[in-house]
Structure formats: C-alpha cells, structure tokens
Amino acid sequence: MRGPAGRSGVRVLPALDTAAAYSWRLLVVGAVVYAAFATLGRFHEIAVAVFLGLVVTAMLRPVADLLARLIPRPLAVAAALIGSILVVLGILALVGEAVAGETAGLQREFSAGLARIERWLEAPPFRLDPEALTDLQSKIGKWLSTHRSTLINTALTGAGRLVEVLTVLALALFCSVFFLHSGDRQWSWFCGQLPRTVRGRVSVAGRAAWRTFTGYTRGIVLVAATNAILVGVALFLLQVPLALPLALLEFFAAFVPLIGSPIALAVAAVVALAAKGPIVAAIVVCLIVVIGQIEGHVLHPIVMSWAVRLHPVVVALTVIGGAIAAGVLGAVVAVPLVSVLWSIYQAVRTTE
Predict the structure, then answer these.
(1) What domain count does the chain have?
(2) How many of the other CB atoms lie within 10 Å of CB of 141?
(3) Which of 3, 37, 116, 170 has the greatest CB tally within 10 Å of its CB?
(4) Residue 70, SS3?
C-alpha cells in the first residue's frame, strides 16, 4: 500500500512518515533536556538551591496552608519551616548518637568479621593464599602512609565542599520562604509580564508542571520513607550494626530511581557480611530483591499515579543520562525534569 505523495511527488510509506514525525520531536526533546542539564552543570549551586527550595515548598505547602487558617501567613510559613528543620536535626542527632554508641562494639565485630571473611576465602571453593591476604593488608597500610598528604588535601577539599553545601542549603531555605509565602503571586506576576498571546499557554503549562512536580516529590518521599522503614526493621531484627544509619542511607538513595536502593542495600550487605557473617549477608541480599519487587510493582504504580507515569525503560535511560551529564545531581533531577517536560507537552497539546 502506498502512502501520500511528498512535496517532490514521491510517495512515502505511512510507517516511514510517522517515524520521521516522531524523530524530529524526539530530537527537540533531547536538545531541550541536554540544554537543561548543561545549564545545571554550569550553575549547579544555584540550580540545586532552587530545586531544593521547590522540593521543600512541595512538601510543606499543605502544612503552611493548614496553619495559615489559624495564624497569619508569615507565622504559618515560619512554623512549618522551623518545625521541619527541628525534625531533620532530631533525626540526624539520633543517628549520630546511635553511631557513637556502637563504635566500640563495631570495632570488635568488624575485626572478628574480617577474620571470618579471611578464613572463608581461604576455604573451598576460593582457596586463596593466606600470604596474599596478609600482603594485601600490608599494601593497604603502606598506601595509606605514603598518600597521607593526599588524604589530608582531600579532607581540606571536603571542608571547602562543606562550606558550599551550607551555602546552597541557606539559599534553598531563603527561596523556600518566598515560595511558600507568595509563590502564587510570583507566578501570576511572571505570567503578566509575557505577551497576551502566550499567557494562557504558559499559565496552563505552569500549573501542569507544578502539579506533576508536587506529585512526584511527595510520591518519591513516601516511597523512600517506606523503603527506609522496611530496611530499618529488617536490619534491626537481623541485629545488623548501624541499622538506623543504613536505613537513613536507604531513604536518601531511593531518590535515585531503580539504582539507588540496590546500591544502599549492597552497602548494608557488606556491613552484614563483616559483622554477622555470610548467612546474614545472604538474607540482606534477598532483602534487596524483595524490596525491589515491592518498590517496582506496588509502591511506584500506586504512589506515582499522582504524577506522570513514565515507562521503566524511559526512567532507566533518563537516570543514566542524567548521571552522565551532571553526576549524582543529574541522576536525582533527571526523572522529575523529564516528567515535568512531558506533562507540559501534554497540557499545551490539549489546549491547541
């Protein structure tokens, strides 16, 4: 069956015509995403601060609106922000106290665990040479002694990074104050500065983008909290050391879809292997599979229905592309960015 004739008079197959139509759209989307990530890499401190400010706004806006019914809006915003900061600091203090309280026991358990791992590697089926393991320990000690200056410089660089992180957090808090207090008025003012012919589309696109972003943010926080609770309870029942810090690591790792949670649980498996032996470590590895199935087939389909649902292949490619373009920041921001862009496209297309 022949398709419609092109401009040159040559008939084009319908499948080829459809593929060409989608190809240029995909190229445009790819160019926009690349430009966005290039901008994030160029001004990543500002981009991270604004992104965190939007995340805080998405999470605390319902609380601030509820408090604003009882007290003035500025006091409601201040109460929501101060209360959330106190909760975060309390969790961090609890984690620090747990780590400090287990330090002495951890040293003994890790020493015994390393000895068990060495004996395990020396036994069948590995049959590693004991001298090779001893030589490896001596090489690690020599490397640490010879690269002491490098490690000190790295620590100093880390101190500089800490200052940058605190600056970004302060800017994010500053932005979230104004987003919570008068974000609607700021967006209305911005739309009012645009030409009348595009105000309607921009307003519709903005509402769709914010609806998608808030849905994704609240959904991913709920997924991360559920994963952290499951991991914390399981590690506590297995008596794995550092159960609370590892649960907190799982919470933050869940913000990187598909790959973050398995990496955090792999760290927990290593800790379990060193402290409790291969059997408990194998149980933790099984936990990786179980939680992955729960997250992929239960939590994400239910929770992420609040936002735009993307195909798992699209999510995987987006996360990897974001990580290549902007590292960990790109991996975290990639999925909500693509979801927002897709929702904007759908909203604008329906208004045409």
Answers:
(1) 2
(2) 10
(3) 37
(4) coil
Look at the block and give the residue holding tokens 């879809």.
Answer: 257
Q: Report how far apart, in Å, the C-alpha atoms of 61 and of each of 172, 183, 185, 226, 267 are.
A: 15, 10, 14, 22, 34
Chain centre to alpha carbon of residue 80:
23
**Phi, psi for 257 (deg, rounded to 5):** -60, 150
Residue 223 to residue 295: CA distance in whole angstroms: 7
3-state secondary structure of 35: helix
Domain boundary among 168, 193, 218: 193
pLDDT tens string 244-259: 888 888 888 888 777 7
What is the residue range of 347's domain? 197-352
Q: Which residues pair with 5 in a beta bridge?
A: 11
Low-confidence ranges of the chain (pLDDT < 70): 1-12, 37-42, 99, 101-160, 296, 300-309, 312, 351-352
The pair of three-digit structure tokens given for residue 255, joined into one six-digit string:
């913000």
Same domain, 143 and 126: yes
Mark whether 245 and 112 lie in a shared domain.
no
* Inter-CA distances, 282 with 2, 120, 253, 267, 273, Å: 60, 14, 21, 13, 8
Place of tokens 């559920």: 226
- d(CA 337, CA 144) in angstroms, rounded, equals 41
242 in the same domain as 173: no
